[in-house]
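hey
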């Protein structure tokens, strides 16, 4: 269904070091913004592109704050522009645990923390050691967050929470909202790292990582009318999987997708891994998803 770009990886090399867990947004002028986690300095960076292939040099947007006690590393973020403010929800990690924090920026490039404490912490048994990978939408005056939870090395399930101000969150009593399906070889071990996108006919598309085992991952999608219940997996899952002897031969992680109405085309950016190296790749699909594509 999806075809990998022949020039992959499109972003990242020995100089940048490992790049992972991207979050793509399309700006009003059609410029693409990529928020990305950088392993070389355990920070969050942002870069821009006119074509989705050639990117500006990373600009560091948020750095760790070890003094906080929960942000020895910062990574796995999402951004949302509301008015003149650009809000960021991000993952802070320390002492084997992960939390979700919030920051804001006036220029969209340099972020400062709004509060010094996490806005979401692991509490329930199924959340284990970590909550991470926030994906936030603002709809009808409500902030809606989808997030991963479970183990720190790789999370296990997808969960949901809501907020009126983006700071105080109420977790859904229906959590976890999406879990692994052992009958599906591509996600028999666990799932994680999602991006949720409203769709005019399907409700919401949830792009996520499926893990065959903890070291082997691929990219999948499911649809749901409300984004939190009654999920239907795509018949073509996995959409993107590792290619033998290639730069992404071990795993394809954390999808971020954008649909181009003019070209009637989906694009997915993801981090691929071969050994200890992770860089960013691109895959495309002509045409939109329809109900017939899902189980």
């Amino acid at each position: 269904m999806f075809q990998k770009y022949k020039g992959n990886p499109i972003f990242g090399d020995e100089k940048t070091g490992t790049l992972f867990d991207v979050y793509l947004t399309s700006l009003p002028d059609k410029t693409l913004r990529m928020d990305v986690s950088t392993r070389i300095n355990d920070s969050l960076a942002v870069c821009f592109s006119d074509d989705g292939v050639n990117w500006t040099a990373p600009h560091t947007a948020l750095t760790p704050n070890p003094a906080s006690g929960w942000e020895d590393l910062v990574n796995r973020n999402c951004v949302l522009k509301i008015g003149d403010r650009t809000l960021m929800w991000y993952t802070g990690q320390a002492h084997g645990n992960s939390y979700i924090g919030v920051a804001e920026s006036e220029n969209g490039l340099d972020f400062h923390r709004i509060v010094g404490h996490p806005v979401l912490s692991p509490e329930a048994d199924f959340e284990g050691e970590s909550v991470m990978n926030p994906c936030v939408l603002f709809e009808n005056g409500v902030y809606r967050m989808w997030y991963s939870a479970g183990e720190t090395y790789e999370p296990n399930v997808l969960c949901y929470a809501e907020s009126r101000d983006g700071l105080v969150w109420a977790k859904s009593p229906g959590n976890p909202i999406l879990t692994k399906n052992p009958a599906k070889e591509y996600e028999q071990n666990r799932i994680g790292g999602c991006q949720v996108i409203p769709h005019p006919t399907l409700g919401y598309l949830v792009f996520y990582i499926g893990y065959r085992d903890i070291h082997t991952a691929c990219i999948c999608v499911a649809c749901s009318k409300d984004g939190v219940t009654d999920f239907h997996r795509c018949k073509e899952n996995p959409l993107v999987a590792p290619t033998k002897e290639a730069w992404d031969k071990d795993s394809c992680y954390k999808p971020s997708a954008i649909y181009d109405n003019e070209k009637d085309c989906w694009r997915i950016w993801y981090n691929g891994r071969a050994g200890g190296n992770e860089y960013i790749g691109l895959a495309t699909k002509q045409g939109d998803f329809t109900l017939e594509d899902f189980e």
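The CA atoms of residues 180 and 246 lie 27 Å apart. DSSP finds no helices and 20 strands in the chain.
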